Amino acid sequence: MAYKVEGDYFEACNCEVSCPCIYMKPGTEDVCDAFLLWHISHGAKDGVTLDGLNVALAVHSPKLMTDGNWTVALYLDERATPEQGEALGAIFSGGAGGHLGNFAPLIGTVAGVSTAPIAFVSEDGSRSVKVGNELEVRIAAMPDEPTIADAPAAVVTQPLRQARSEKVAYRGTWTAEFSGRNAFITEFAYEG
Description:
By secondary structure, this protein is mainly β. It has 1 helix and 13 strands, in the order βββββαββββββββ.
């Protein structure tokens, strides 16, 4: 199950300030709703090329994410072939190991793995994604892009650039809607 993928990453969550969860501290709300979004620039798993594909993960967890019992919904780019979809599912569920495999034991319920049209846009310091009719996320970089490095519970190993959500609307397994909350932008590189 050899793979290597890299590209653009951003996330938004309902924490009022920079997410304390990445330091294994309780979030600022009673529950954590986080939306993780990847655009693969280059990558492959077992010889299956994944260039240009997108993935989204919706996470609903207790206030202290390290308590586990997460409910997650994984969305795979509908443009993926069956082989690519299988590879994406293995990598981004943590099933293929590597850095994301560290988070798999925290998942209590997989609400679904589905394909959807995923439109990922990166321009002028902002990021946006639309996942079918279920998820829309827009974030903007903050002035001077404050950077956070070496966060022990971050989904990526690269330094995070602090951002702010402009709109988050999820109407999937649960509902969430907020703006003006925490967001991060960075690049990602995973292998396993």
